[in-house]
């Protein structure tokens, strides 16, 4: 069912510093920051030859990553995103298997339908599935 | 400098259960477990179309992931691995930039030279660099 690893999302307290580090010390292809007000984050996309890294920092008062950064002030890997062909079919299969899916599919930061899976059911890992 | 994302490593408390979940509920291509006694882990490789996921569980008394699982009993993302062309050049560049590199290059679980970078210097993320 799962296909490509679409991205790894890393929450960071200082987006400019993290972006400069990936562009400088790590020598990666780093894009300018983009505000995603509907998702409560500002994102920097890092393009690797085979996938993407997304550096996230909170935007606004109700950011979904604010709590994570309170618990992990230095930052950390927040989630990984796998691609699926059909988000509704994926959701139905996971629910049938007894996994906790966090809500109905919604439009994610890339303009495509996504769901999130409960980390307690997946080895402490927050998994996003995106209909590619 | 960094190239492909070689793998994402997820530490898990129950390797058989995690492997069964990735093969079943998530429908991925999951290989049989491999003991890596020199690295203190048993590994299950999951092949995605563009990269790999490695499920790790401790092997033996001195596993480098035992402490992580004590702090994260459900498991969690342990590290991400980026490929580089020249591990010595990568190490020298990072040291020159002031980043803490954890020791000299050594032969990693794939039989290739690797170094690890201090998570405190990289947004709370343990980064492995592997000479591809």
Architecture blueprint of SSEs:
Two copies of one chain form a homodimer.
Chain A (H helix, E strand, L loop, with lengths): L4 E7 L3 H9 L5 E2 L3 E3 L4 E7 L4 E7 L7 H6 L4 E9 L2 H10 L4 E7 L5 E5 L9 E5 L1
Structure description:
Chains A, B: Residues 4-132 form the VOC domain. Chains A, B: InterPro entries: Glyas_Bleomycin-R_OHBP_Dase, MeMalonyl-CoA_epimerase, MMCE/EMCE_epimerase, VOC_core. Chains A, B: Belongs to the methylmalonyl-CoA epimerase family. Chains A, B: GO terms for molecular function: metal ion binding; methylmalonyl-CoA epimerase activity. Chains A, B: It is an enzyme of class 5 (isomerase). The structure is a homodimer of 132-residue chains. By secondary structure, chain A is α+β, with helices and mostly antiparallel strands. Chain A has a single domain (5-131), classed as 2,3-Dihydroxybiphenyl 1,2-Dioxygenase, domain 1, CATH 3.10.180. The first copy, chain A, is 19% helix and 39% strand. Chain A contains 3 helices and 9 strands, in the order βαββββαβαβββ. Chain A starts with a strand and ends with a strand. In chain A, strands 1, 2, 3, 4, 5, 6, 7, 8 and 9 form a 9-stranded mixed sheet that branches. Chains A and B meet through β1 and β6 of A and β1 and β6 of B.
């Amino acid at each position: 069912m799962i296909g490509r690893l679409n991205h790894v999302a890393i929450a960071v307290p200082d987006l400019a510093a993290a972006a400069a580090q990936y562009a400088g010390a790590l020598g990666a292809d780093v894009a300018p920051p983009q505000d995603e007000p509907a998702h409560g984050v500002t994102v920097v996309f890092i393009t690797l030859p085979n996938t993407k890294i997304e550096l996230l920092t909170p935007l606004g008062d109700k950011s979904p990553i604010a709590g994570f950064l309170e618990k992990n002030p230095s930052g950390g890997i927040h989630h990984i995103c796998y691609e699926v062909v059909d988000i509704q079919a994926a959701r139905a299969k996971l629910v049938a298997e007894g996994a906790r899916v966090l809500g109905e599919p919604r439009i994610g930061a890339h303009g495509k339908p996504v769901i999130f899976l409960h980390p307690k059911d997946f080895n402490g890992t927050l998994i996003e599935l995106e209909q590619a």
